[in-house]
Every structure is written in C-alpha cells, then in structure tokens.
Amino acid sequence: MTNPGFAVATATRSHILPLDVIVQLSDTLAVGPAPEPIPSIAGLALYHDEMLPVVSLDVLLGESEQGMRGWEDREWGGFAVVAAAGRRCVLAVDRIGILVRDAYPGTMLELGPLLAAILPEVETPAPPPPAPDTGWPRYLLTDVAGNLCGFRLDAVDRVQDECRIVRAPHRPGSVVSGIGTVDGRVLPVLDARTLLGFPTARRAGGFVVTAGSGAEHLIVAVDRVLGLRKIYEESLAPPPDGSRIGAVAACDGRAVWLLTASGLAGAP
C-alpha cells in the first residue's frame, strides 16, 4: 500500500483521509458540550483520558455553515480520531467507508492546514502511527456474536456495510455460505459466526473483503465493523487448539480473536 487511505463521507460527498493521520476509527463515541461555544467545534469527546475537540468534517470543509452542527447531533454515522500538524481532534462524519489501498495523493485531504486554522497546537503532539512497512500493528476490529474479532489491516482489501449474496448449496465440509461480487469479481462468502461456532444471525451487519489471491481473497460476514485498534505483535498469544483463530490479544481489557482468511477457510 503505497498511498493508503480510508474513505469517509459527509452528507454531500466522499473524502479520503490519509491513513497516517488516523489514530482510531469508531462508529460510536460519546460526545458532550464544550465549556464555551465555538462555531467550529461541535463538542468534546473523551478519548483515552483526554478530552478532544469534536469537529464535524462538513463544517471543517465549508460544506456546512459553522455552528450548524452541535454535540447533540445524532446524524453522525462515525468518528475518526486524527493527529496532524501537532493537533488532535475527533472528526465526525456521516459515514465511514472503505479502505483505499492506493489512492492518488491529490485526492487525500490535507488535514494539517485545516486543523491549524481552528485548533491550537497541543503541548505534546501524539506520535504518528507506525508506517505500514515497519511492522504496522493495526487491526480492523469487528463484532461477532458479542466477541471482538480482528483482521490485520494490511490483509484487508476493503470494508463494506452491504453485499449482495447468492446462497450456495450446502456441501459437506464446505465453509462457503454463498458467493458475492466485489468490483466485478466473484468471491466466496464465509459467515464468521458459523465458523466460530455461534448461531447464524438473520443478517450480517458488515463485510470484510480480505486481500490476497486464491483462498485468501474472500468475503467474511460479521455482525458489525467497529474500527481500528493498535495491537502489538509481542502481545499476541497462541489460539486454542483446533480453533480457526489465528491468535489471541487483549484490547481495553477484553480478549480479541485475531482472524486470517486462511484460518477461517481451514487452510493449513
């Protein structure tokens, strides 16, 4: 991934955030009022014991008037904690989209100058996330039957909330629950609930399209896509014997099952 980014959307258009400014993505975040009303700031959010300003991306980009979006707004569909130009904040967006593996640099949002115009520089800037080619320890977290399950981000091709699936006839020993199409490619669909031993949900709430070729390029149906987290390699523990889990880690006091396409598909 030479120019990786993550697509987000306002009510009127899509934008791409450079991956190196994203600290975390989340579909939910508790937002409260700021002590003093500021037109460019929608409110405050608590992130790892730090109160960060919440900035609505449409207001930041001039798509909406300042002061139109407030902390009580319920139309936001996702949040991105970002760090750029020595400033940290939470960007509120209408929708978090897909991972863009190789975006044109000119299509990326330059957040540094935009944030510098409205936010003071913090005394101790947060270090940027490690680059993807230096053992990048970030995972895409999902919910599967109330359990945290993660996919290493450099093994994820894209994330989408909908996927048209044609159910496959059941064959003994097959882990494929159907087939779906992504950019004209027909890929097998695996149900993470079924593969991990849980009852099948009526409808999946998200789909992770894994990168790779052959058996490693497939669609995994999950209950919900939660966002990005750092998980360092030294914290990984071996999985239980006979499971389809690649490794076990911890995040915010909870166990995270780390999954791979080959492991879910039963490949050696």
Notes on the protein architecture:
With 268 residues, the chain is mainly beta. The protein has two domains: 5-116, OB fold (Dihydrolipoamide Acetyltransferase, E2P); 138-265, CheA-289, Domain 4 (OB fold (Dihydrolipoamide Acetyltransferase, E2P)). The protein is built from four helices and 20 strands. The protein has helices spanning 57-60, 111-116, 192-195, 261-265, and strands at 5-9, 14-18, 22-26, 31-32, 43-47, 50-56, 78-84, 87-93, 95-100, 138-144, 147-152, 156-160, 165-167, 178-182, 185-191, 206-210, 219-222, 224-230, 247-251, 254-259. The chain has a six-stranded mixed beta sheet. A hairpin with a 2-residue loop joins strand 14 and strand 15 (185-191). Mean pLDDT is 81; it is low at 130-135.
How many helices in DSSP terms?
Answer: 4
What is the CATH architecture term of the largest domain?
Beta Barrel
Structural class: mainly beta
Instruction: Determine the CATH topology of the largest domain.
Output: OB fold (Dihydrolipoamide Acetyltransferase, E2P)
Uncertain spans: 130-135
- Quote the average pLDDT: 81
**CATH homologous superfamily heading of the largest domain:** CheA-289, Domain 4
